[in-house]
Design a protein that fits this description.
five-stranded parallel beta sheet; binds 1,3,4-trihydroxy-5-OXO-cyclohexanecarboxylic acid; alpha/beta; about 35% helix; about 160 residues
Length: about 160
Amino acid sequence: MSEQVSGTTARPRRILLLSGPNLGLLGTREPEIYGTATLDDHVATARAVAESAGFELAHLHSDHEGELVEAVHAARREAAAIVVNPGALTHYSWSLHDALAAFDGPVVELHLSNPDAREPWRRTSVVAPVATGSIVGFGGLGYRLALEAVVALLAE
Ligand code: DQA
């Protein structure tokens, strides 16, 4: 994916969007919390922002922690930035934490809801310490904001 430019390795013009457990149920899952838009709707929003800035958007949804970890490993070669909504893995997945720590590029943690305003166990994020920043509580708008953030960071 990466290209050699003047002796340096150019960053691939690809952003990876990761969606963790249960996000495939969006649209019908607790709509009073997560809204009625589907994951496909959110991916389309993210893809439109990425493509308008000249980036390709790769998306992986998985209910399995290891698949998400492996996608982060591959992103070390294949992506310039990661936007991740880890679902409940946010609150306990140290393997996802460690994988993201080894990724050399912007990482945006994204949540539809505001976990800090919910149950106490959601107030811990093990992803936040290895994220460049977090976007929470804006519902589907967060996908637009997250992609705009990584595009701006990659332009710096
Ligand atoms: C979520 C918040 C998490 O606490 C929860 O487990 C989810 C969705 C969100 O987008 O608001 O699955 O990541």
